[in-house]
Amino acid sequence: MDRKEIKKLENIFRKISSKELVGAEIQDSPLIYSIIGFLPACDGTDNALLISNLGVMLAQKGFNTCMVDFKIFNPNLHHHFGMDPPRKGQGLLRVLKSDKADMREDIAATEEEQLYLLSPSPQDLMEEYFEFDFTHIEHVLSTLKGMFDIVLVDIPYNPPLEFCTGAMKHCHIGFFTATERIEASGNMTRLLDFAASIGISTAKFTSVIMMNLHEIGMDYKVFKQMGFQIAAALPFVKAATAYAQDGKLYVKDHPLQNKTFMKEITRLRDLIINQ
Questions:
Q1: In the chain, beta strands by DSSP E
Q2: How distant, in Å, are the alpha carbons of 12, 63, 246 from that of 2?
Q3: Which residue stretches of 171-249 are H helix?
């Protein structure tokens, strides 16, 4: 029996429920650092495009992967798969409201084998999310860690919001995403300073994924001078954005892929699975 058959999520779900996994020290995944956060440092990035395509590549490698959309005010990961969003009060909100909720009812299966999505509903009222704190974020992420090999978290850049700083606190590896904008390095530094001031370790957020590059001659030495390293550099690919608009996945569906884009996102995939 090959790895795909052994690791099928359906088999795991039949044996144990998410409720039973809460607080349990169960780790089927070979990855110790399995909760990966992606945080935009400036305008012009497209985390949903990155996470959706990266998720497909991880699932194709046999890893049960769950994507989590923490952009509670403007969730968009479901668009990249041509999926309907959760109905009002379901999805992420229902999971947050009750630690007894069975997550299997709120995690949506994509058309890709071994790839799943936990998302808020665009119909949810904004004020419904203000009552949640770090413990609720920790519960969601720790439960997903026990259920999946890899969890990819789309984190909003909103420092006062628990879905930003709480996700930063409880993810294992963090990547800033940035474009060729001069304010990117300053935004990253300010956010990390704020996070450190409230007791959040910032050492995990020292890697940067450059996105939508147009080769405008930006001086990348500033990142190194401020303690950051570039993990990947993805060029702007019009077809990737166009495919996302149609609910398609560039790395899977496009017949002719940009070699640089594929090289860089493959390097990022390998960086995650060969940690």
A1: 35-40, 65-69, 108-109, 115-118, 150-154, 173-178, 207-213, 229-235
A2: 15, 12, 33
A3: 184-197, 221-225, 238-245
The answer for residues whose C-beta is within 8 angstroms of residue 143's C-beta and 6 or more apart is 18, 21, 22, 103
Tokens 């969730």 -> residue: 75
Strand order in the sheet with 65-69: 108-109, 115-118, 65-69, 150-154, 35-40, 173-178, 207-213, 229-235
Rounded CA-CA distance 158/122 in Å is 18
Q: What is the DSSP letter of 80?
A: G
pLDDT tens profile 138-147: 999 999 999 9
Range 236-269 burial, b when 16+ CB lie within 10 A, else e: bbebbeebbeeebbbbbebeebbeebbebbeebb
Say yes or no to pLDDT of 15 above 80: no
CA dihedral 42, 48, 51, 56 (to 10 degrees): -160
